[in-house]
Amino acid sequence: MSFRTLVDAAEIARRLDDPGLRIFDCRFSLADPSVGRRAWREGHIPGALHADIDLDLSGPRIPGVTGRHPLPSRDAWLSRVREWGLSPRDDIVVYDDAGGAVAARMWWMMRWIGHESVAVLDGGWQAWVGAGYPVTTALPEPRAARDDADDYANRRPLTKLIEADAIDCSTQVLLDARDRRRFLGEIEPIDPVAGHVPGARSAPSSENLGADGRFLPKEALRQRFERIIGARRGQEIVCYCGSGITAAHNVLALVHAGFDEPRLYAGSWSEWITRPERGVETGPER
């Protein structure tokens, strides 16, 4: 069995003893970057490794040049994947306690190196614990690098990236995944400049979820995005956020709803504002 976008807790519980299933705990907090790893040590899904946003899922930050969570180089990411003993044949499940807002980053990054069978646990940690499935503090035994891990280097990305200089709102629809108040420029608790990329549209990633913390049904997601993007599709859509994390949540929601893969602007707002000449807008969409 292989995964593509989302997977239910019950399905993972049935396969806990399957050596071809690899699980990653992606819990993380901007307020305290050590919280996620501590939470993992205090209890996690059996067999789950921890993937840290800062240490594993981001590259070096260069003040004034990169955003807050730049992608690592492809080679650095491939090296980390090999260290985890992953294989292109594994089924990979990623989860967090934030409705998938963090786990979607690893989902996207695995697809970036051509790994097809990867999914976010729908409802995340809360769904797992709420269903009464097992939790452990036992840390997984390290796995040796797999013989077929080098196959990743020859795989084509399943994702689409775009750089700041290629963004053109006259031909693309930019979806901003941040809270709408940040988009409007009414508040900015993290970055030094408030507002949004000129011409962008507000599409908070939190609105991909229902009250239960799970993703909305596919049809509801489809209707949501059709209201925002109209007839635009595929590479005409660009997803961004504050630092390239929750933007992947919108990518996941779009793909799950049946849309073609949009582009990810991984540098996002925190990179965009490093060059004032790129421009900033505040207030509602034009």
Features:
286 residues; alpha/beta; Oxidized Rhodanese, domain 1; 2 domains; 11% strand
Tell me the name of the CATH class of the largest domain: Alpha Beta
Class from secondary-structure proportions: alpha/beta
Strand content: 5-15%
Percent helix: 25-40%
Principal-axis shape equals globular
Largest beta sheet, briefly? 5 strands, parallel
Quaternary organization = single chain
Residue windows where pLDDT falls under 50 for at least 5 positions? none
Assign the CATH architecture of the largest domain. Answer: 3-Layer(aba) Sandwich
Distance between the termini: 45 Å
Tally of discrete structural domains: 2
Question: Biggest sheet, strands in spatial order?
Answer: 1-5-4-2-3
Q: What is the β-strand count?
A: 10
Helix tally equals 9
Report mean pLDDT, rounded to a whole number. 95
Order of helices and strands: EHEHEHEHEHEEHEHEHEH
Radius of gyration: 18 Å
* CATH level-4 homologous superfamily of the largest domain: Rhodanese-like domain
CATH-defined topology of the largest domain? Oxidized Rhodanese, domain 1
